[in-house]
Amino acid sequence: TSLPAPADWCLKQSQEIPLVDIPGEHVDVILGRLDHSSVDTANHILYLACLGSHCVLAIDTFAGRLVDTLTGDTKTSYRWNRTRCSCSVPTIQTPQGVLYVAATQHLYVASASGSVHIYSTVAGGAEMLLGVLDFDGEVDNLRYFDGHVLVAYGDGAIGCITDQPGLQRWDVHMDESGDDSSSDGESSSLDYKSRREMREIRDQKYKKQLEQSAAMRPQFQEACLDMSKTFDVDEHPEGFEIEQTTHPHRERRIFVNVADKCQVQVLGYDSCKTLDRWQLPEPLGANYPMRLD
Asked: Which residues are CB-neighbours of 287 under 8 A, at least 6 positions away?
């Protein structure tokens, strides 16, 4: 049988989506290096790490447009006499790894600054930042397996986050009951002397809530991290994959690219120990991405 002409079976470009940010956000045009991506197949949303612009884009691949920009800031804010006063948490800096988990609708964003931002997504759009986890050193690749998110970070480690379906937001929900959108110049139902005094009271309340949020952050970290499952790697881990099928006579394996040593390190998923090291020939160095078929 003769093969069809290359034009009939080769991959073809079906659309082109310009990476220009949505109106109203602080980033107008996406600049610099792009890194990892992850897909919400049910809602046709592609999450793309824009390392050079310090943000993650949510792209509707069906409509061919941007639908959200994630920077690490909370979206909760006060509106006060047509002005906006917003509260923020640690922002995303140089995002690298991105992982969407369909089972819980959580989005994980790993940054070179050493943090992992966890979002809750609703109907395909990132609606709420649940919390931020801190790691010792650069955080890169993320993988999901059996209710856990494995995190490659630092000078040689893979940590483990428990992906909890009912994970609650780590900071205090900002109370917007003090919002006053009236335009007639009258004070709100609370009898304060002036709008300025009301603003000062509101800002003090806001500051107190932020302090409470900072105090709750370690509790969020403790609730999410599984310290019993940590893997030691010889150098900074790059791309890695988890064996999906099991063998009756050996434990499940994790294959890790260790580019600085030009090797693949084989770890035991259950024992958390190194099972083997595969040295690569010199021309095959710089082994960063990996895919297990």
From this structure: 238, 239, 257, 258, 259, 262, 263, 264, 280
